[in-house]
TrEMBL record:
SUPFAM superfamilies: FAD-linked reductases, C-terminal domain, FAD/NAD(P)-binding domain. It comes from Rhizobium hidalgonense. Keywords: Oxidoreductase. InterPro entries: FAD-dep_OxRdtase, FAD/NAD-bd_sf. The keyword Phosphoprotein does not apply. The keyword Nuclease does not apply. The lineage of its organism: Bacteria, Pseudomonadati, Pseudomonadota, Alphaproteobacteria, Hyphomicrobiales. This is Amino acid dehydrogenase.
Amino acid sequence: MSSIVVVGAGIIGVTIAYELQRRGLAVTLVDRDAPGKGASYGNMASVAVTEFMPASRQGIWAQMPKWLLDPEGPVRIRPAYMPKLVPWFLRFLAASRPSKLRELEAAGAVLCQRVYEDFDALLKQTGLTQMLTAEGCLSLYTDEAEFKADREHIDILERFGFRYEIIGGNAIRDLEPALTTKIGKAVLFPDNRSISDPYKLVTALFERFEALGGRIVQGDVAGFEQSEAGVSAIRLADGRRVVAEKMVLAAGAFTARLSALLREHIPLETERGYHTQIVEPGISMRHSIIWPARAFMVTPTAGGIRVGGTVEMAGLEAPPDYRRAKILVKRAREALPELNAERATEWMGHRPALPDTVPVMGPSAKRRNVWYATGHGHLGLTYAATTGRLMADLITGIKPPVDMKPYRVDRF
């Protein structure tokens, strides 16, 4: 039986490990934390199949100066971290060329078009179908001007055949009575469904993985033992070794540190995201909501209501700035005037962000027995089942159902 080590026990790593174990490999998960305790713990619980657009598109560039100058804006760069971001931003700029944008849109759309085929299969195999809700997501606009500002997004969805429905007036409140009457138009994305608790999904998948014979080793990865054949073992900070015939690096925003030890540099940054989990919100919601002009999202999940969003570029080491979470709650109350946030917890996590918004999935260009699955950005949960399927195909020698060239590690 072939043995393989998957580094990273978030939703991506656990799903890959489960799929490989299911296919007959002996899999060991390695992570410094318990499964699901990283970015997967606090994501917005959204299977967001309509959100694959590159962040470098023109509509974002047009708003960036205003956002950066606004202390409460949706994007913040800590000044001390700015010099380290220059190479990443140059690649981000390169990804904004019109011809390049079309390539990136297609690469994201290909993944999103097969999300439910893979997600439904995964949930059925594991007996977790009840964790996927039936309701979609509402995108909110106060007026026609806000709607037109987001029209680029909808035009891209039309081009790739994703479903949406434009709703106006009282029909919006019929769907979500708690919404303010200031919202004059909304777009329903029926296929942007939610997970009832994203952390519990990771832990439940991990339990299925263990039941199949998979194991986990908790510890910090400090280095790798290498030979001409590739990586032969992982060295942990406490001196332990984990032998590996094959290895997948799926450690989210921390993957670049590990790939650098293999002299394979990935332009991976962390977009630090914040959420507030409200235990007794005083309102009920069926749909998740996003308000593009205010750049936040609200999702009913984890037994309450979760408010999240924002992008903070400050690296992996800087302490959280929970003022960002409070700003999001302030924005959410504009949409949901009766929202009660007295009983709430705040959280910050590291989204793994590549400058072209397209994940890395595939073999190393430098080590023959190493694969990468990282850089899923805001779509880790959305892409999880598809990533598990595609990576397992690659590793077991099966031709994947999609062209994997757009996701190669050496594309930059």
